[in-house]
Design brief:
Radius of gyration: 38 Å
Order of helices and strands: HHEEEEEEEEEEE
Distance between the termini: 64 Å
Number of domains: 2
Structural class: alpha+beta
């Protein structure tokens, strides 16, 4: 009886360690999503300032054009009409000085206008770059949100699997066994044994291959169960003679999922794949590849 308690305690500790690792992974992804949101807000503030500068430059351009039109009107109004000779030299000198002043002012405004146009072009290029950065940041944030959602889904799946394992092992005899899987991978088994082999429900820890929670027959996964891989991929469904066969759902660490029929460890038969962006596609798979419709 004490040996059984030790085995149960060992299983609980392993389950808690795995759940803790998933929690840390989810928190890291949440912090990355928060940082991406802060960068996006900074880009929006910069865009607002640049738009204000563009509006101010446009106003300067309008003042320049109004002054230029006024000068043209003045020259036409003070010109020499046909058949008339001006004798008032003072008036002519005054008009001449006014013309010189306006010419200098126009020259200054022309230079300022050229500088303003250069600045407008630079601002437009900067805005274009900022819009590209905003688009990239938005895509990155969407990707992080999808990864975070997928991580939460894996966390929920893991918690459900652990709860199911504890429920099955709580009031039953728990044995341990080490053996090699049909693929030659070392497995540490915790669960029910029959004639020295796994039988019924149990947990198998695969060396460098993750772990399996579900039903066994002999040294093989057989029946319904979940296999959680070290890279974050999760398969939940039916096994026959240690291979995925029947109906099952495979959740990739990238966020994509396939749900449908399996044969000999490959997607085979009718199924549906859901992509990271939320779109989905149904069809028929043959030996792991989707069959194209003719």
């Amino acid at each position: 009886m004490q040996k059984n308690h030790r085995h149960i305690a060992l299983a609980l500790l392993l389950c808690l360690a795995i759940a803790g690792y998933q929690y840390v992974e989810r928190e890291q992804q949440a912090r990355q999503a928060s940082a991406a949101q802060e960068r996006l807000e900074t880009l929006e503030q910069t865009t607002h300032l640049l738009r204000e500068q563009l509006a101010e430059s446009s106003q300067q351009m309008e003042r320049y054009q109004a002054l230029q039109a006024s000068l043209h009107d003045l020259l036409r109004a003070q010109g020499h009409p046909p058949g008339k000779d001006y004798s008032d030299e003072a008036m002519l000198a005054r008009i001449h000085r006014l013309f010189q002043d306006k010419t200098q002012e126009v020259s200054v405004l022309t230079r300022e206008n050229a500088q303003t146009e250069d600045k407008l072009e630079q601002l437009e290029r900067t805005l274009e770059q900022i819009n590209k950065l905003r688009s990239q940041e938005q895509q990155r944030q969407d990707s992080l949100n999808r990864l975070l959602q997928a991580s939460r889904g894996r966390q929920d799946s893991l918690q459900n699997a652990l709860a199911e394992a504890l429920q099955h092992l709580q009031n039953t005899r728990v044995d341990t066994l080490s053996f090699l899987s049909p693929k030659g991978v070392e497995v540490s088994f915790l669960g029910r044994l029959a004639y020295g082999e796994p039988s019924g429900f149990g947990i198998g820890f695969y060396k460098e291959r993750g772990y399996y929670i579900g039903h066994w027959q002999g040294n093989k996964r057989h029946g319904k169960g979940r296999h959680i891989h070290l890279n974050g991929d999760i398969y939940e469904g039916e096994f026959v003679e240690d291979v995925r066969q029947g109906y099952g759902k495979y959740t990739f660490a990238s966020g994509e999922t396939y749900e449908g029929e399996w044969q000999n460890d490959l997607m085979h038969g009718k199924g549906r794949i859901t992509f990271k962006n939320g779109s989905a596609k149904s069809g028929t798979w043959v030996e792991g590849k989707m069959k194209e419709n003719n």
